[in-house]
Amino acid sequence: MPAANANLADWLSHIERVHPRTIEMGLARVAAVRDALHLAPHFPIITVGGTNGKGSACAMLEAILHQAGYKVGCYTSPHLMRYNERVRIARAEALDGALMGALDAVERARREIALTYFEFSTLAAVWLFMQERVDVAVLEVGLGGRLDAVNAFDADCAMLMSVDLDHMDYLGDTREAIGFEKAGIFRPKQPAICADGNPPLSVLKHAADVGTELLRLNVDFGFEAQLQQWRYWGRHGERHGLPHPALRGAYQIANAAASLAALDSLRDRLPVSANDIRTGLLTTENPGRFQVLPGRPAVILDVAHNPAAARALAGNLTGMRCTGRTYAVFSMLNDKDIAGVIDAMRAHVDEWCVSRIEGPRGSDAAALREELTRAGVFEAISTHGSVAAAYAQACDRAAENDRIVVFGSFYTVAAVMAARELTRGER
C-alpha cells in the first residue's frame, strides 16, 4: 500500500501497477470486491453507455438533476487534466483527500484480487457516493457494457447513446457484435433509452430477451429542432420552447432528448421541473466536445477518436462560419481507426500539424503522415515530437480569420489544454 503520507499521485501510480494489464474484461473481480465493501447503493443509478455521446448525456443529466436540487454523484472517464474530474459530487470535483480515502477502502477490501485501474476507480467512486449519501448517481461505462466494471451495479435506467465501430479488439468487428456488448447494461423490467436511430438487431433482441422496457429514439421519444429552440416529445407528453444545449453541435439536441427520456422514465423517483430542464441545458459543461475557445483565431477542441465522432466534428465545422484556412493539430492512439478518422476529416483541413502521443499506444508522427499520404494528402503536413509543438506550429501559421482544430484523442486535447495553461502561467 502507499505510505501514510502518500498523495493522490502516489495512489494513482499504485493502482496502475496492481493489475498486469490495462484492460481485462470481466465482472468477477470487481463484483467480489464490491461485495467485500458491501456496496449496495440505495440511490437510483443511471448508467450511460454507447460509442459516442456518453459524456454529453452524463453532463446534461448531472446539470438538470443538480438544478432540481438533488445531490448528484457523477462518474465519467477518462479525464483531461486531473483525475478528480472523473468523480464529481454536487457538480464539484472530489477533493484529493476524499479520493485517497475511497481508494484506500478499495485497497483494503480487495486483499489478493488484482483490479485494473478502471475497476479500482469505479469501486472507489461508488464507495464515495455512498459515503456522501448522494441522491442519484450517473455512471459512464468505460468500454463496452456487458463486462465493464460499471455494470457491476444495476441500472435503474440504462442509456445506450450510439453503436458504432470502436474498441473492436475487445467488442467485435461488427455493429451487431458491439451492440450486444453495449446492451449488456440493460436490466429486467427497468427502462432503457436507445438514442441510436438505427440500432443493431442485437440491441432489440437483447432487450426483448432480458425483459427490458426499451424506449427508442423516433419511436417512443423524439424531438423537433427549430431555429432558436426545440420541442421534446415522449410517452409522458411534450415539452415546448426548450433552449438549445450549451454544448455545441446539432447532434446535442438528440443527446438532450435521450436525457429527457431517461428523466421521464424516473419521474416518480426524481421529478424535475420545466425550469430545471431549461437551466440545466443552458449550464451543461463538457470540456473537449466541440469546445470553441474564446479569441482569434478560433481554437476548437474535440476528443473525436473514431470515425463516427470525426464525422460529427466535420459536420459541425461545416456549420461553423470560417473565411480562412483550417489547421489541424492531430494525434491518435495506434489501436484506433486512424484511416477512418482521416477520411472523415481530410476535406475540412487545409494544413495538418501531426505529432506523436507519449506512451506505448501512441502513434508516432511518421505513421500519421503515412496514413495521410495513403488518404491522398501529400502536402501541407508537418510532423512534430509533441502535441504542444504541433499546436505551437498551428498558432504560428494561423491568421486571425483562420481556425485551429485539435482532435484525435483525449490525450491530444489534454496536451493542448496543458500547453495553453503553461503559456498563461508564463505571461
* Low-pLDDT regions: none
Helix content: 25-40%
* N/C terminus separation: 40 Å
| Mean pLDDT across residues | 94
How is this fold's topology laid out?
Elements: H1 8-17, H2 28-36, E1 45-49, H3 54-67, E2 72-75, E3 87-89, E4 92-93, H4 96-110, H5 117-131, E5 136-140, E6 157-160, H6 168-171, H7 175-182, E7 191-194, H8 201-210, E8 213-216, E9 222-225, E10 229-234, E11 237-243, H9 252-265, H10 274-282, E12 291-293, E13 298-301, H11 307-318, E14 326-330, H12 338-345, E15 351-355, H13 365-374, E16 381-384, H14 387-397, E17 403-407, H15 410-426
Parallel strand pairs: 1-5, 1-6, 2-5, 6-7, 7-8, 13-17, 14-15, 14-17, 15-16
Antiparallel strand pairs: 2-3, 3-4, 9-10, 10-11, 12-13
Helix pairs in contact: 3-9, 3-10, 4-5, 7-8, 11-12
Distinctive features:
15 helices; eight-stranded mixed β-sheet; six-stranded mixed β-sheet; alpha/beta
In short:
The protein is α/β, with parallel strands linked by helices and 427 residues long. The protein contains 15 helices and 17 strands.
Question: Can you describe this structure?
Answer:
There is one protein chain. The chain is an alpha/beta fold and 427 residues long. 39% of the residues lie in helices and 17% in strands. The protein is built from 15 helices and 17 strands. The strands form three sheets. Strands 4-3-2-5-1-6-7-8 form an eight-stranded mixed beta sheet, sandwiched between helices. Helix 3 packs across helix 10 (274-282). The radius of gyration is 21 Å and the shape is globular.
